[in-house]
Specification:
Elements: H1 3-9, H2 13-17, H3 26-48, H4 51-57, H5 62-75, H6 78-82, E1 85-90, E2 95-100, H7 101-106, E3 131-132, E4 135-136, E5 146-147, E6 162-163
Antiparallel strand pairs: 1-2, 3-4, 5-6
């Protein structure tokens, strides 16, 4: 190829010397990959639901709740133990419950998480004062999700305190 043929194909000699404009920069490649990853996460999240990511973002916290309840008991903090709400998350059991340490230690539904009894604190709770996931106990139900009868102090003979 002689110089005339080169000039006819590439009329400007600067085009031959500066080729940076033709390449994809590293930053552009990284941004494209990052955008693709975000797009895949959004597609998976909206199509299958966000619960798959919940395990990563909100891990199981049984040990933390046990520690908090034990600490509250040892300090003798009655209000915090009987009424202060804590959230227990157990991803393996698909459980996410918000209630007090008194309910965690007294209700049989939570026995397997080994929240210790607190003999130093006596919670005198009426059935309506026992709350799980913002739902109060009710005496008029025969069955439900949680039986918290052993915690309620205002039950008559044969009555139950149920939270559905």
């Amino acid at each position: 190829m002689n110089k005339k043929e080169v000039k006819s194909i590439f009329p400007h000699p600067a085009f031959l010397q500066n080729r940076r404009g033709q390449e994809l920069s590293t930053t552009t490649i990284i941004l494209l990959i990052l955008g693709l990853v975000i797009l895949v996460v959004l597609i998976v999240g909206f199509s299958t639901g966000w619960t798959a990511f919940k395990k990563i973002i909100l891990p199981t916290n049984v040990d933390t709740v046990v520690e908090e309840c034990t600490s509250t008991c040892s300090l003798g903090n009655k209000f915090s133990f009987c009424s202060g709400e804590r959230t227990l998350r157990v991803n393996e059991d698909k459980l996410d419950v918000k209630t007090s340490c008194a309910v965690f230690e007294g209700a049989s539904s939570f026995d397997k998480y080994n929240i210790e009894d607190c003999p130093a604190i006596k919670c005198d709770l009426k059935c309506e004062e026992i709350i799980i996931d913002a739902k109060a106990g009710r005496k008029d139900l025969a069955s439900g999700k949680y039986d918290v009868s052993e915690l309620a102090n205002d039950l008559g003979q044969g009555q139950k305190c149920i939270i559905n």
